[in-house]
Design brief:
Order of helices and strands: EEHEEEEEE
Strand content: 25-35%
Strand order of the largest sheet: 2-1-5-4-3
Largest sheet: 5 strands, antiparallel
Structural class: mainly beta
Distance between the termini: 49 Å
Helix content: under 10%
Shape: globular
């Protein structure tokens, strides 16, 4: 699904990443997510606070150190944040399209060689 993102920015320990792709490969979309589960509501109560804002089409997530340029009329949808690793839940105002951004830990292994 193409959500129509115009710009994606993220700051990691390795530096700043910026993509102007309209279909970035590292963002995955799911359809049919139900927020009616009692289990999901229990987990939601334990979620960490996220420092985020949306002004016009510019979404900024200071907790995850990234920003997105969203299509017009998209909103921050707190109902989509159901797991502690979820950094953002965003949707169209009619809630027919959405994006969930989750934190993923990446381990890098290196081996020193003798010269």
């Amino acid at each position: 699904m193409n959500a129509g993102f115009e710009k994606v920015e993220a700051e990691t320990s390795d530096g700043r990443i910026q993509s102007k792709s309209t279909d970035p490969g590292s963002i995955h979309f799911r359809e049919g997510l139900s927020t009616q589960s009692t289990e999901a509501n229990t987990v939601k109560a334990d979620l960490p606070k996220i420092d985020e804002s949306l002004h016009g089409t510019e979404y900024v997530n200071r907790t995850g150190k990234f920003s997105l340029t969203l299509p017009p009329e998209w909103i921050i949808n707190a109902d989509l944040r159901q797991r502690p690793v979820t950094l953002a839940g965003l949707s169209s105002s009619d809630k027919t399209r959405f994006a969930i951004v989750s934190k993923k830990n990446i381990r890098v292994h290196s081996q020193a060689t003798k010269s």
